[in-house]
Predict the structure of Acyl-CoA desaturase.
Amino acid sequence: MSTAFDKFPPIEGIRWFNVAVLVLTPLIATYGLVFVPLDWKTVIFACAYYWFSMIGITAGFHRLWSHRSYNACFPLQIFLMLGGISAVQGSCYFWGRGHRSHHRWTDTEKDPYDSSRGLLWTHIGWILFKSKLRSGPVDSSDLGKDPLVQWTHRYYFPLAAFFGYALPTLIPALWNDPWGGFCFSAAARLTVAHHCTFAINSIAHYLGSTPYDDRLSPRDHFLSAILTMGEGYHNFHHQFPMDYRNAYLWYQYDPTKWFIAVCKFLGLASNLRVFPSNEIEKGSLTMQLKHLKQVQDSIVWPKAVDELPIVTWENFQKESKSRPLILVSGFIHDVSEFIDQHPGGETCLTRNSGKDMTASFFGGVYRHSNAAHNLMSMMRVGALAGGVCPPDQTIPPAQVLFVATRHQDSEILLK
């Protein structure tokens, strides 16, 4: 029987420090939930500090340093850097290089959290276990030259210990709740922050839709956005990674986008990068057409005009004696299976077999709907020799717009 571990690469060892952080931290949080009374001031502080940690990751480590999607003044950089460090997910230098590799080598063995390895591997396996897999090379020279990034990388462990555990414990001590601080604003906050961030690598590659491109695994989903402070519109993000927004549409949930926009309004951020909307619409249209092509291919269409046999007037008259054949717009239609369903009654069709009913069909008796035109086209059995079909009546209304696959030697995509 297959298990979640079957897709794991060969394991060479365990990252014990990561195991300690990701096992002991939730155990401390669980202990607190069972044995430590909740103080509402600590709960409020824990929520605020959680926001601080997550915005440090999403607006800082991710959109500012990994993707350079906007510029931040130095005080904002310090705020975001400390927030990201408080999430205890590695230094900004480590985080940014790994994430750039993920974008450069998505869904391959050089992707540090390769989605083809399964949900468990992408969520936490790659963090806990050592393997022969190595992240693909990327250009991180700008991170190597950034003094703030390099200083915090050099002193990451004492900084993470202080901002990740000590500070969120000490502040609740001011209102005599150090244990609550340690269990809730430190351990519980970190546990939730860890797994919500990891969800960007895991469920954001499994759950949702692909409205901009479906060649790779990233997907858009509202639930992922809720868990990750807006990072869940991952299909958009992988197509347009330099855009400071993950949620392109105004109504989509992306508090990180709103935070960056507010920072710009306050003069703390600048040069907010956005991908041209025209190019975004191209991606969206491509996927819509692909979906429509699949729907179109599942529908039964009438025979192509050049596949219909040419029938003389004499043969048309002869055949119409044995079965109801109606001539409309130069095409001969066998209405045998429709006689009992015709709204005008059976007689209307049988008494006009062998006749040209074009004028009647187009308003002489009744001006038929597009649906009637589409249905009638399915009954075509031949084209009258020497018959004339108006150019706008050769193609049924349902086929006026028709999605076709374009190849290098083709001239049209939509005809």
